[in-house]
Structures are given as C-alpha cells and as structure tokens.
Amino acid sequence: MLLNAAELEALRGGLIVSAQAYPGEPMRTPQTMAQVAASAEIGGAVAVRVQGTADIQFTRSAVQVPVIGLFKDGHDGVFITPTIHHALAVAQAGAHIVALDGTRRARPDGKTLAETIEAVHERSAALVMADCGSLDDALAAAEAGADLIGTTLAGYTGEREKTDGPDIQLLEQIVASTLGLPLIAEGRIHTPAQARSALDAGAFAVVVGTAITHPASITGWFDAALRA
C-alpha cells in the first residue's frame, strides 16, 4: 500500500489542494501544475489532487505529501476516471489515491463501481476515493469497497440541488450514516470560513481547488465585485 493507516490518518483535519487547469489555459502544463502543488504544500496542504497522468508524475516528484490523482475524459456524465483503464493508468502514474466517479450511474466501459475499485486494489497499491453526489452514492460506494468518500459531485448529478458553497447537509447526512470511512468535503469551498464549516460538519479533510489554484476564476470574482 502506498499509504499506510498512519499516513492516511495524518490527513485528518487538513487541507487538500486541488491543482488543475482547464485545456487551453496558460497554466495547463504538467510542470506548472506540479509547481502549483508544491507551492500549496509549502502553505500547509496535507495532500494535493491533480488531473492527468503527466500531472501526477510531475507532482509526485515535486511534493512530499500524498497525491490524489484522477483522469477527466469528457465533460458530462461519468467523466472523472470513468473506466478501469483510466483508474489503472492513474495508479500506475504514481497516485497514492485514485479519485473516480463514485456515483451509481452507468460507467462507459460497462463495469460496475465495485469491479473498478476491485481492479485498482488488486492491480496496484493505491487507495480509492469515490467522488459522490448523494447519500445513496456514498452508501453504495462504501459497499463497493471505496477507501474514502468525497462529496465532489454534490449538485452535479441531478440528485441534489447545487448549493451556494459546500453541501453541508450532505456532509451531515453521510456522517450520520456512520460509514466509518474518511469523508472528504469537496466542491464550491471558496473561503476559509466555508472550509471550517465543512470540517465542523464532520469532514475528515477538506479539498479546495478553484479558490486557491485557478487565477482566472479568482480574478473574475474580484472583477465582478468591482463592477457590481
């Protein structure tokens, strides 16, 4: 296992920084994303989350903290590490944790979530983080063998309304279900206060991406405020 129990426990209560850029943007290079991830580590990030096999490889060399890796294929439906092929590629690139779509939706390769998680566990040393959109997703992902549960897709699958900020209610529902797995709060966490509220709601750790690592969005927020 790339992460032992003590190393995973070290993430508790910490900030995980997602360093991703969209295709066509100036920062969309593996080297740049690795540098952003390394800067986040200096700031106190306990882990980083990056997209694409090249980004994972560069980031593994740039940071000492665990790397959560994923592979986005498309923009709609199941597109976050959608198949066994993608999941194994992420693991082979060096990710300590493979993040994948953990919803109950049909997967492009026809495999079940359980089959996908089993393949990662059997053919790599990586853990699996299931990006979920609802309580039912979280329960099913836990049953399928996921090692961590994320609220990454809350508000994006049609099961829950897209909240302004993190879906605190969903966090509380999952905590109340006593799954016993690390619960990672992710999605629309834009301020330190929101991050704190997610942790107070019972999250094991908190992922922040756009508000830290996406200059175009952050600039847009300030610009909109000045023009209002």
Descriptive report:
This protein is an alpha/beta fold and 228 residues long. The chain has a single domain (5-227), classed as Aldolase class I (TIM Barrel, Alpha-Beta Barrel), CATH 3.20.20.70. 41% of the residues lie in helices and 15% in strands. The protein contains ten helices and eight strands. It has helices spanning 5-9, 30-43, 53-62, 84-92, 113-123, 135-144, 168-176, 192-200, 210-213, 215-227, and strands at 15-19, 47-51, 67-70, 97-101, 127-131, 148-150, 183-186, 205-208. It has an eight-stranded parallel β-barrel, surrounded by seven helices. Strand 7 (183-186), helix 8 and strand 8 form a beta-alpha-beta unit. Helix 2 packs across helix 3 (53-62) and helix 4 packs parallel to helix 5 (113-123). The longest helix has 14 residues, at 30-43. The relative contact order is 0.13. The model has no long low-confidence stretch (mean pLDDT 97). One of its GO terms (cellular component) is cytosol. Belongs to the NanE family. It catalyses: an N-acyl-D-glucosamine 6-phosphate = an N-acyl-D-mannosamine 6-phosphate.
Strand-helix topology:
Elements: H1 5-9, E1 15-19, H2 30-43, E2 47-51, H3 53-62, E3 67-70, H4 84-92, E4 97-101, H5 113-123, E5 127-131, H6 135-144, E6 148-150, H7 168-176, E7 183-186, H8 192-200, E8 205-208, H9 210-213, H10 215-227
Parallel strand pairs: 1-2, 1-8, 2-3, 3-4, 4-5, 5-6, 6-7, 7-8
